[in-house]
Structures are given as structure tokens and as C-alpha cells.
Hints:
single chain; alpha/beta; TIM Barrel; three-stranded parallel beta sheet; 10 strands; 29% helix; globular; disordered N terminus; binds zinc ion
Amino acid sequence: MSILRAVTAVTAVLVLAGCSAADGPDRKAPSAASSGPAAVPSAAAPAGGRPDRQHAGWRDSDIPTFGPAPAPQKITVPPGGSAPYLLRIPTTQKVAFLTIDDGFVKHPEAPKLIAAARVPVTLFLTTDAIADDPDYFRPMIDAGAVVEAHTITHSNLRGRPYAFQKRELCGSADKLASLYQRRPVLFRPPFGNKDATTLRAAHDCGLKAGFMWKETVHKGKVRFQEGKRVQPGDIILMHFRKAFVKDFLAALRAIKKAGLTPALLEDYV
Ligand SMILES: [Zn+2]
């Protein structure tokens, strides 16, 4: 199946699962309380060499462990005046891609958890969402997370004029570049809503590809668009939300259960 056909076939279904309704309440709570008491690093002796400290709402041993990801096989992005739009990476390699969106809710455990997990993640950040505390994301970047574009205002782009869409996409990429010293090369339109203008505007400001997703995680549950298992090349969507710890661990468990390893989206595009 061609990429375009695949995208067309599932777009209608996937839009419903995006960061739409469920995002609303979270935006009012830029600093979510952690889901447990303050972190108390225990002096527990590591069994087998790996520390198992108790943190707020999670332990080190809650994090699934993975073998190294295989050497990435880059996909070919078709030439033309529009960025391609993908919901998975067409690969048979045993990898999956974890993506985390928005940035309105800044759970205090998220930076620690991402660093402790030592898995690659892509953060599609909305610049208005992170404006109150861009430094919150720096430890994640230091731990290997890569920041990509998710517009300035989290507006629905579909149907909007070219100039509006270009400002949202290019403006957010420029802002993220000035904040984090790397200009995004990938993007995700809010709610997964895009049109031909979106893909043209993205291409025109140097964004190589846009991404939807195959699985979503919310309140600790993984929802599959098809089947009951993460497939090779699948892109998993979660958000910076109050349930960050549960969502992140659930996503990693689903990847582990499928016999896959988290890989970095940017290594494949
Ligand atoms: Zn979003």
C-alpha cells in the first residue's frame, strides 16, 4: 500500500484519537502535582548492578529494559513541494517510536523518568505551551530527547490560509531553534488535522515530514488503531499530562510486549 493511500484510509479514524478533547482540562494546569510523595531516593543496594530507587509514583524497576536498537534504515522521502505525512515508519525492523506532545502540563517526574528509562523519544512541543518554563524540557534533551514542531498556538490548521499555517509551523520551528539550539525537521499538526496547504507550508520552511500515530496512550492505557499489539515501525502518541508516569510506563510496556525496541524517529527520516 502506498503511503498516501495508507494515510487517506485511516485519517478519519485517527483524528478522533488525537490531542483534542482530552487536552483541554490539562491546559488549565501548567504545573501538575506529582502523583505521589516527594521523591525519596532510597539507598537500596542494586541487585544485579541496576539501582532500584523509589521515586514519586514509580521505581526504577518499573521501567522495562530493552536491548540496543538496530542500525536504522532511513526511509526515502519523496521529492516535491510538499512534506510527506506518515502514521508509521515503513520498516520491518523491530522498532517503535514514542512521541510526546504539547507541553502544557509539566509533571515533575517526567524529566527524571525519561532520563532513567534511557530510551529515545521525540517531543512535539507547542511553543505557547512551553513558554512559561522552557527549561523544564532541557534535562530531557540532555538525556537524548529530540524536540520537533507542534505549532505556536495549537490551532487547528486544516482549512486555514497558507500564511497562517506557515506562521504556526515555521514560527514554532524558529522559536524552538532559538530555545534549544536545534531547529526542528519534523512536525505534527495539532489534532492530526492537516490539508494540502499544511504540507506545502511545512515543506517551505524546511520541515521534512509530518507524523500522525498508530497508538495513543491516555490514563495508563494504550489504545490501538488496529490489532492489539504495537507493530514494527509504529508511532505511539502520548502527551505531557497528569498521568505522565503511567502513560510513559504503559507505552514502554506495550513496546516491550511486542518484542520491539524504542528507536529515534529522526534516525529514520
Ligand atoms: Zn497536541
